[in-house]
Design brief:
The protein is α+β, with helices and mostly antiparallel strands and 199 residues long. Helix content is 33%, strand content 19%. The strands form two sheets. A six-stranded mixed beta sheet has the order 4-5-6-3-7-8. A two-stranded antiparallel ribbon has the order 1-2.
Length: 199
Amino acid sequence: MTDDNNGPTDDNESGRPRGSMRFQDAESTTPRQPSLAEQRARRQAEEQERQRRAEEAEAADRAARKAESRRKLLIGSGVTVGLVGFIAGFYVVAAPEEVTAVCVDENGTVVDDDYCDDDYASSHGGYHSGGIVFLPSPGGGDYRQYRYNYGGSGSVGSKVQGGSFTRPSNAEINTRSGSTVQRGGFGISGGSFGKGGGS
């Protein structure tokens, strides 16, 4: 409807022209209640969010368990390998060396193994002192000296070749005739110290 004097008028009660915007005051306006459809959609979204978070937590927990299991497996493998290596190394280091003892006289001539044996010496009027066996000479009077050479070689009547007159501490020492001079192993030497000469 048109007024000739004032121009277009509005039929609404507020007196504002049509098409103008109304602003709500947040402090004085009561928010409208969400519709049932909006409430249902909100609950659905919240449920989906809960499920998503639960799945993420479960996935993270599975990954952590798997990583821990892998770490324990690697540690276990490392310990096993390290232990096996340690034991193998221990046996290599501690395994006694096998040495052959050769009986020689004071001139370094190889003689029969009996001359270095304490029992043989005592039964033939001799004795053992300081790693050397003393036996009376065949003609009587003075004594001849006999002792072991460790690791040397040579046949009876020939000069000994190589070796040492110092008894190795961690060694299995046997004579060529098969008697044991010393049992060795794990750093412990023992056996027949009284069964033969040597230092």
